[in-house]
Prior knowledge:
By secondary structure, this protein is mostly helical. The chain has two domains: 2-144, no CATH class; 156-449, no CATH class. The protein has helices spanning 2-10, 17-34, 40-72, 91-107, 116-124, 126-129, 156-186, 199-226, 244-250, 253-267, 274-292, 296-317, 319-325, 330-355, 359-370, 385-405, 410-419, 424-441.
Amino acid sequence: MLAGSLVFYAYNQWWTISIILAYCFMGWSIGLLLARVRRRRAVLMLGLGFNIGVLAFWKYAPFAVTAVAASIGVQLPPALPIESWVVPLGISFFSLSGISYMVDVYNGSFKPEPNFWRYSLFIAFFPHLVAGPILRAREFLVRLRPGELPTRPIAEWEGTFLIARGYFKKVVLADTIAETIDPFFANVANPTTDGIWSLPYLYLYSFQIYFDFSGYTDIARGLGLWFGFRWPDNFNWPYFATSIKEFWRRWHMTLSRFLRDYLYIPLGGNRKGPFRTAINLMITMLLGGIWHGAGWSFTLWGLLHGVYLLVNHCWQALPLQAGLKRLHGGAAYAYTAFSVVVTFHAVCFAWCFFRLTDFDDALACVRKLAVFDPDKALAGGAADFKLWLLLAAYAIATAAAVVISRGAPVSSVGQQLRSLPMLRGFYWGIAFGMLVLALTLAPGSQNSPFIYFRF
């Protein structure tokens, strides 16, 4: 499993195998040292410094050099590989897995792994390697130890269904949306897009990044089940969140819990008064934005979500909010719908700075939210009726599945295969039918990588 994972990782960037092996060796060594030396804090700082330092070098060196040179008015020599700089795939994800392991060993919540190969497989196992979910040692490494290693797949139908659903989300929904919206975002500051309303494109990008990333997570979790491992989900209907706080409990949940448990809570969380709570929130979301990439737009994206969370905290403290929570019946449904709409639009606005890493392009997109020509507002890809029909059909099919299953998770539905064998063929037909649909409906001209591969 480890050999196959390393071949998978090194397939397109063979030289990066040395980086991931260095991460594996350092994390494993630090874990053992933490159990044997007295100056444990210094050892932990060494391990964290390595993980964060190497990550910072590969992800942020070109941006830092360019920013410093621009601030002091120095022309960079052409020999510097700024334009050709390549960030190793998945370095952010396996860095965080290593950090969580070292901190858990330091805190005594996990015993250090004595076997280098098992630890390396925990870091480098191919399904979750390049885009998560971000796994903790107790969720995966413990299952690799003697007596715990699976000998057969588990939940075969669930794994197959997740892979099929993830493949459908990616190649049919996300890639079709990308084919439609990429020309607009590539020319958002160009006069050729003047008068076009940017809001529908932000809607579509919101759906694209969700289908793209949750699709990858589905595939990773499905492959994990095929190998006998059950991993946590990464998404739980995030665009139905009624607040930004709830959104981050539903979106990229393994990153959210990492930021909460290894950054926000150690900073003091909400235990040291309102002012420190605000500072801790802003630091956490700022670093969450920077983690996604080098650039001022990612920084602003993180700061925006920090401000959103502060507003959310202030709103929760108002007496009016307590009164609204006591609503019932139609008034309660109306308030919930209003909260979902406001939260979704706040998230869409922030996506503008996530999608457009050039600051001028992002500002042009923001301007076109309010300044557009009514006669050509919906021109271009946003007016593609077939795309909206495809999204509506997927929404209706999903809603029907939720109603039929009474809101039960996929894992519960899969368990019915044993209790209701008459449904076995029907369930397997759904899984393979989604794969056939994905192959049939995938746009032939689009072959884009997963969005989160670059993080």
